[in-house]
Write the structure tokens for this entry.
Amino acid sequence: MTPISLYPLKLAPTLHSKVWGGRKLETTLGKSLPTRELYGESWELHDSCIVLNGRWRGQSLGKLLQTYGESLVGAGYDAGSGFPLLAKFIDAKDWLSIQVHPDNNQARELEGEPRGKSEAWLVLATESDAQLVIGIQPGTDRAQLAKSLKVGRLEALLAYADVEAGDVLYLPAGTIHALGPGILIYEIQQASDSTYRLYDWGRPGLDGRPRELHINKGLRVANLESLPRVTRPQGDLLVDCAYFQTWRHRLNGESLSLRSAGRFQALTCIDGCVQAESAGHRRIVLNQGETGLIPACLPAFVLRGTGTVLRACQATPP
């Protein structure tokens, strides 16, 4: 196989029902939900996503990654670690659990996983009085946190932030956090399942049983020294961290030419309709709630249409 057989890919997401989920993936983003369950997440960029167009139609992104490696994702691809970033929509009808994620070193030490989990949220829609948990109140030490978890009184120590549509929050690994009710977000993160659940509001999971907590590991990795800051970026660049970069491009009928710089480019339309095209390849059309991928081996591409697209890629190597 040669890289020339890669082309702009349109992806089908994988949907995940959650005890805290709702129906906004369908009512707001236009996704077809297969059952009447509560759906919390739509994984837009992940090994499990299926290609919808061209010769690789029906192939999973994970399988394609095994075939093309660096041609698909860019330099430094590790065949044993899967797709490096995960993009998703999250619909929180109720509070998510209070949780924390390890960093790269901690994930390798505690879980034998290739990477930790830093993430960023773009708030797409909120109901009134929407809030996030962004950490623990300043001055709280680890012993106080452990005691509050033991007696089930974590709420008294939580630090909250009000949010509205357009707000952005970068959550480095180690940040204690949770999404609150009535919030729909786009999330970009290191592709990792390493989540330590500290507190779950005393509710049962979808199976009727309490969900597992991971207090010892969570206490070990939690950052109690600082709180993240909710921002409202006005320019195109929303997030620029050590692991990924994310831009928001607003189009009003014009075209926008971009270069891939040897890195894959994930494109998620959050309103309107946007087309993506690379020279010599058939274009993909992305409606609201749909995601495409420009492989790293395609040096340039053009966006056209009327709408808003989020573009995410790995950070430029140092």
